Amino acid sequence: MNEPRFGAPGRVKEVTSLSNPLVKDIKALSLKKFRDQQNAFLAEGLKLVIDALELGWTIRTLVFAKTALGNPAVEKVAARTVAAGGTVLEVSEKVLTAITRRDNPQVVVGVFAQQTLALKDVAPRGDDVWVALDRVRDPGNLGTIIRTVDAVGAKGVILIGDCTDAFSIETVRATMGSIFAVPVARATTDAFMAWRKGFGGLVAGTHLKGAVDYRTVDFTGKPVLLLMGNEQQGLPEDLAASCDQLVKIPQAGRADSLNLAVATGVMLFEIRRGALALTSGTNA
Ligand SMILES: C[S@@+](CC[C@H](N)C(=O)[O-])C[C@H]1O[C@@H](n2cnc3c(N)ncnc32)[C@H](O)[C@@H]1O
After folding, report:
1. Ligand 1 atom closest to residue 227's alpha carbon, by position in its atom list
2. Which one of 18, 134, 167, 263 has the largest count of C-beta atoms within 10 Å of its C-beta?
């Protein structure tokens, strides 16, 4: 792998030019190719950056707006970044807008090292719940699902086949910070099928042709793997055949299916119903 870029470690730089090479490198993280090459991604917002550091993620570069100078929380994060060997860039709003491709950008952006889990290390036990997504294409759906997995206390997400990138800025935005709390594993369909053979719990696939109402299934007392299909095509035959049960969410009205993230949410709240009954309130 190439050496990580993003500036010499441990230094604070002031940058106002869009043609600054550090800014160019960070902007290039909007491309998957460059994210993969650098094993890096962007996360926007002070709270997200603080949470990520708390959860042990490696920060490479902290970018903050001049307007945030003097904000004690930003200065604390900047000091932590330098202590961790990262670079701190103080930039103009123009630069932040270019990096995030957004008007009114957040005043803090972090460049983090990507972290994924190897499929062989996904070993569900007890009443663990994992979600496997077949070729999910929409970053908003993936981010929303990662956020929902976090919210219900499920363990993580397995991406099967050619999926949208969990580390794109759109996906990370939609996770609202849960990207740092939810492990993500990636697998080819073949690798998933091989791993699935060693999975001792219940594999529940969701399918519009499912014969079973999801509310009649006993999800308790065992690990559950919830398998969701692609937005356009649903689950292919081989993955559907690998499920212990194919369940359907009954619908009324004219819509022929639910949005993938909505269907995943409905399923997760049912699967985790018992566990969530003991929890009161939200984390807001
Ligand atoms: C938008 S749907 C896919 C629709 C696709 N045209 C099809 O025929 O399967 C995306 C995924 O959400 C889940 N899903 C959506 N609505 C569902 C329902 N009513 N029952 C079960 N699963 C559903 C399934 O996993 C499905 O593969």
Report:
1. 25
2. 134
